[in-house]
Amino acid sequence: MTQTNLTQQQVRERIAKRLASRHRKEKLFRGLGIASIAFGILAVVVLFTDIISKGASAFVQTQIQLQVNYDPAELGIDKVDHESLAWANFDGVIRNALRERFPDVSGRSEKRELYSLVSSGAGFDLRERLERNPGLLGQSETIWVNADDDVDTYVKSLSKSKEGFLGRTSEQKAGWINALLASGEMEKRFNKTFFTNGDSREPEQAGIRAALVGSLFTLLVTLVLSFPIGVAAAIYLEEFAPKNRWTDLIEVNINNLAAVPSIVFGLLGLAIFINFFELPRSAPLVGGLVLTLMTLPTIIISSRASLKSVPPSIREAAMGMGASRMQVVLHHVLPLAMPGMLTGAIIGMAQALGETAPLLMIGMVAFIVDVPHGVTDPSTVLPVQIFLWADSPERAFVERTSAAIMVLLAVLITMNTCAVWLRKKLERRW
Question: What contacts 279, CB < 8 A, 6 or more positions away?
Fold first, then answer.
């Protein structure tokens, strides 16, 4: 009897020890989970803080106030038309304005340094102003033009230190900048050039408009092709295809395709669309076709999951009322599954928007300045534009790279928010 009680006591002690061990492991596992989430949140906070701290300054641009005179003799024109404006000497007008502001500057090297205060693209701004308002010919006006990227970098660095980052800016040039800042003739203004211009070798003239339009055309081609094809494939596989080893093989391969590295789709697009069909390189059409191949598995998988979520009773009730199988799918199952399909499509589009590797393989890494007007025009996309700027040696491109990343992240967050909102708004619980 004593031996039996002792054994039961030992059993209870062992059970207590095991329970304590389980509880410790559970607490450890819970702690590791919380630590993992905290580490992830910390990494995201550090990433966003770094990007915002580097890119926020790109949304402002240093500008210089100039009193320009549209002198016909200096411009070399006597009328305002497209041909005359193409040959007009607008750079001479800007140089005159700078010499009038700093009349003590003499010597060829000093004048060259003085002229470098203003962006080389300022002449194009003057031409656009005169083209919009021909009455300015022979008149004077006060305008704000973009400063050179070295001047912009120096002015922005003054907010961080009193000396500022001189870089390629000389002491004399810094003196002119400080004089303009003190008189209010130089200040930081909203950088609309960043949103209205295409790419440029000059950082102060570089913008994301061409890349944004190219991304829009590329996503449009991707959506038009991938969504109907993906939904049709999902409906056939889920509702009509016989359950045999061939459909099992197709399903396994679709799941495997979703995990294939994206650059493989780029190689496939290079071989088929460009080398075989000889479609134009660096075009949204080819980019959209490549991204369609990459997005199709995601849309098919999410669409099949949405179709499976529709209760069988819906199908049985419709067939009981005499509906054909096609009518059951198109009139009852598909409308109920559509919210999940749309959510999957938006997530697939967001994934396609952020892809860079497959587009590099089909030549969308080219230097494209003009804004595309169609799906066959030469174009680039925003992730590739970021890749190009990140590889540029000029210091001013660092902030523009981070600013473009901020715009891309904002678009991706907006698309994912729309997907969540659609799912919450349209989903039905059974």
Answer: 273, 285, 286, 289
